[in-house]
């Protein structure tokens, strides 16, 4: 007996096509907005990373020679030895061979300065590389998502690819890029302090004070959104600290504490909190009424 194929329902196919079209419209709007924001961020990061790497390379060119013996010093020492030998020969005296100098060792400040600056350059170049890859991945995502015209196939491709973004934590990869750039800047300032120590102590103290202020402000911007969920400031480390605090909360078994997986989920939960919801609704409505310029725009409130 031959297996019979189920009869296709044209009305059902049409209804499904409409449903998939709605899904595609929403998914396309969301994905394009997300990928465009990533692409714009990556373009800005690439420009800054390129300029910063070029500037940092100029500093490294100045500091790198301090890690190796200066050839000019060896030349001066050799000329001085020849001069002493000639003088001894002219006077008929015995020339005493000078005591050999100890092997060259760079100073601690030179080692610290070059270490910090080479780490900074590595972070900056890694940031540029990953930013370039993210731009390529974003274009590849849009290309794959629009390969097929059929609504049902496009919808499944959108869902499949977006699930891949979440499964492989591409959002976190994108968040790592500015973190690398921030760490590169901090290492640059730390190397600048070490570079100035043997040159001028007051200037090194000024640079150290600036570095301490930057570190303090950066730490505050990292921690503030953990305490105040409506705080507009954050850094790439904020999400990491939130995950750590969430893990500690689970260990302490505090049921009343926020246990949302991400800061965005915690913010959404806090916005729906009934304790202060009516106050927020009141402020939103007052702002809406004040911002309306035409009386016809007030009709929805009167209906």
From TrEMBL:
Coiled-coil segments: none
Domain of life of the source: Eukaryota
TM region positions: 42-61, 115-134, 176-197, 203-224
Classification via Pfam families: DUF6535 (PF20153)
Limits of the DUF6535 domain: 20-197
Keywords, alphabetical: Membrane, Transmembrane, Transmembrane helix
Protein name: DUF6535 domain-containing protein
Organism: Roridomyces roridus
């Amino acid at each position: 007996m031959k297996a019979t194929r189920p009869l296709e329902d044209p009305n059902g196919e049409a209804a499904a096509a409409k449903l998939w079209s709605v899904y595609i419209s929403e998914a396309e709007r969301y994905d394009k907005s997300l990928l465009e924001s990533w692409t714009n961020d990556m373009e800005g990061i690439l420009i800054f990373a390129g300029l910063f790497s070029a500037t940092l390379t100029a500093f490294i060119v100045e500091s790198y020679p301090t890690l190796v013996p200066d050839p000019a010093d060896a030349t001066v020492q050799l000329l001085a030895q020849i001069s002493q030998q000639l003088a001894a020969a002219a006077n008929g005296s015995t020339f005493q061979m000078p005591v050999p100098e100890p092997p060259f060792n760079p100073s601690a400040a030179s080692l610290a300065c070059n270490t910090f600056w080479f780490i900074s350059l590595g972070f900056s170049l890694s940031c540029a590389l990953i930013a370039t890859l993210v731009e390529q991945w974003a274009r590849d995502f849009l290309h794959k998502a629009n390969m097929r015209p059929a609504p049902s196939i496009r919808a499944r491709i959108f869902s499949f690819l977006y699930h891949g973004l979440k499964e492989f934590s591409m959002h976190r990869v994108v968040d790592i890029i500015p973190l690398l750039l921030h760490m590169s800047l901090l290492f640059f300032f730390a190397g600048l302090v070490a570079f100035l120590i043997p040159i001028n102590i007051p200037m090194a103290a000024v640079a150290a004070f600036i570095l301490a202020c930057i570190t303090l402000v950066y730490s505050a911007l990292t921690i503030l959104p953990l305490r105040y969920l409506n705080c507009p400031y954050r850094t790439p480390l904020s999400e990491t600290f939130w995950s750590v605090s969430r893990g500690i909360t689970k260990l302490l078994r505090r049921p009343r504490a926020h246990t949302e997986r991400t800061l965005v989920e915690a913010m959404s939960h806090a916005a729906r909190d009934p304790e202060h919801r009516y106050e927020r609704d009141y402020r939103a409505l007052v702002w809406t009424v004040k911002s309306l310029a035409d009386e016809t725009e007030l009709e929805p409130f009167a209906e």
